Amino acid sequence: MRTLFDPQKLLIIAGPCALESRELAFEVAHYLLEIQKVCPEVEIIFKTSCDKANRSSVHSQRGVGFDQGLPILRELKESTGLPIICDVHLPEHAMRVAEVCDVLQIPAFLCRQTDLLRAAAETGRVIAVKKGQFLSPEEMRFVFEKLKIFGATEIWPMERGATFGYHNLVVDMRSFPIMRQFSPVAIFDATHSVQIPGTSAGVTMGHREFVENLAYAALSAGANGLFFEVHTDPDRAICDAANQLDVHNFLDVVRNCVRFWLLRRTIENA
Predict the structure, then answer these.
(1) What is 10-268's CATH number?
(2) pLDDT value at position 61?
């Protein structure tokens, strides 16, 4: 199986938080394809979640579900050629999602769930695993080692902020050089890192105005991949409405990120 990560390109994972509809997925994918065409320095992976199982409230929408969502993702992959990443929450989801998607994402709260890690690794797909808000970057080494033992060959650890008291996340920029000690890839989840969890009647709030600055800082610190949730109308998204970026303006964000990434590569290679 080919390696998805190309060290000569900036890895960009982008797409809507939840798979709300076929129309939304394809519209966002269209914009991402255009960005890919004009930014040859990046490798774009389309992301979404068929089933957002880790919502704050039982009343929150979760997306279209796997039965409806996986056929949509298969069609999108075949028509656009974009690789696909989707999260899994239970071991029994892993093989089913792997039949369609190129990358399986392990949510942050589940990053130490051994049975889930084993099931994901045994699919043979790339595994992207988010660092739990409760873990140090050093502790991600043990998550990485579990996946390796279970047979995963390409593993992408992601930083998405650490819990700081109640309702706040902070990003330790040391995470990226630390995680790159045991992984060639260190990805920054820029949009989840600006969340303010549980502050509005069961709805996660956030500060999207800080997304770009944190992305630039992460690239300067050594991140070589970025994760963004983007939407055609973020304020109307069914989840993470306060954090997602408007895909219509995303090209400028990507271009600026490429500039920081290229500067960091110049410094590393000096």
Answers:
(1) 3.20.20.70
(2) 63
